[in-house]
Amino acid sequence: xxxxxxxxxxxxxxxxxxxxxxxxxxxxxxxxxxxxxxxxxxxxxxxxxxxxxxxxxxxxxxxxxxxxxxxxxxxxxxxxxxxxxxxxxxxxxxxxxxxxxxxxxxxxxxxxxxxxxxxxxxxxxxxxxxxxxxxxxxxxxxxxxxxxxxxxxxxxxxxxxxxxxxxxxxxxxxxxxxxxxxxxxxxxxxxxxxxxxxxxxxxxxxxxxxxxxxxxxxxxxxxxxxxxxxxxxxxxxxxxxxxxxxxxxxxxxxxxxxxxxxxxxxxxxxxxxxxxxxxxxxxxxxxxxxxxxxxxxxxxxxxxxxxxxxxxxxxxxxxxxxxxxxxxxxxxxxxxxxxxxxxxxxx
Length: 347
Ligand code: NAP
Ligand code: ZN
Ligand code: ZN
What we know:
The protein is an alpha/beta fold. The chain is built from eleven helices and 16 strands. It has helices spanning about 40-50, 100, 150-155, 160-170, 185-195, 210-220, 230-235, 250-255, 280-285, 295-310, 325-330; strands spanning about 1-10, 15-25, 30-40, 65-70, 85, 90, 115, 135-140, 180, 200-205, 220-225, 240-245, 260-265, 290, 315-320, 340-345. The strands form four sheets. Strands 3, 4, 5, 8, 15 and 16 form a six-stranded mixed sheet that branches. It has a six-stranded parallel sheet with strand order 11-10-9-12-13-14, with helices on one face. α8 (about 250-255) links the parallel β12 and β13 (about 260-265). α4 crosses α5 and α4 packs across α10 (about 295-310). The protein starts with a strand and ends with a strand. It binds NADP nicotinamide-adenine-dinucleotide phosphate and zinc ion (2 copies). One zinc ion binds next to α2. One zinc ion binds next to loops.
């Protein structure tokens, strides 16, 4: 066991503050990583503040983790001490169910183990995430990353990257598709970069006019200001595919009406309040409304390799961990260009 410094929320209303806890010593298949950078996902905020319910306190968020291997168990094959390594949203699953066997560990029928706020399979306690000095996980849940890309900008790929890559691949997005990405935040900016890199014609749907130039720089071919009724009307029945990354309550029907016949809208954004969708908005034009959760381990590695090959990283603002509570407030205002990443040497 090793005592590990961290930042934790002690309740839904208390700001994140210094805390420490015990990490297990590496078991034979475990990898121990010194965390160098950890991205700040809106899911961290939803969880720390118990917006989805079910948060166990103290809560140490963080699931966009990159670092260096500091110890390995005797049976570890994939890593050696000193290697770069990364951990995303999962640290364990049953590995026996049909979904796990297919590499869809995020949909494990017996319940996957999240990097934070989950019960460990062996009953040893709660998982604590990447707002901490180090982490220990089974090598099957540890990913390899390129040493050619800036590490701090790779960190957000572990959640924002895979969460947008996975649905784009599942729905086979590419050349000839008209794709819209709704919400230009952490997930949204990766959605734009990835969809554009796959050859799609990309429209950014944003409620922030000042993000237009950035959207175009990130690869969007068109920009629609969603607070402008005329601009919204002009894209009625336009898109094959919409990736909805919005974190707050919004009217899904506005965006369903932008889909062509057989169009698909995939929700990856997870507002706490349920959405209201009349069946007719799906029936007319045979539209689909779907969801998608992060990605499995094989696909996460595929995405990291794809990003390394195509030189794709996140646009980041590196912060000191003492500024994490301000970063949460700024994220709520949509004031992040486009992912906060904590420099863990400041802990
Ligand atoms: P984020 O960086 O805060 O971005 C969210 C964006 O949504 C904002 O930048 C803003 O874009 C838009 N937005 C925010 N409030 C809005 C409002 N009131 N009305 C309209 N648009 C609004 O968050 P994120 O880290 O990308 O996460 C987005 C959501 O995805 C969160 O709910 C998170 O929990 C969820 N998530 C899901 C998965 C999954 O597996 N499905 C994985 C990770 C995260 P504009 O300024 O451009 O409008
Ligand atoms: Zn996340
Ligand atoms: Zn399983």
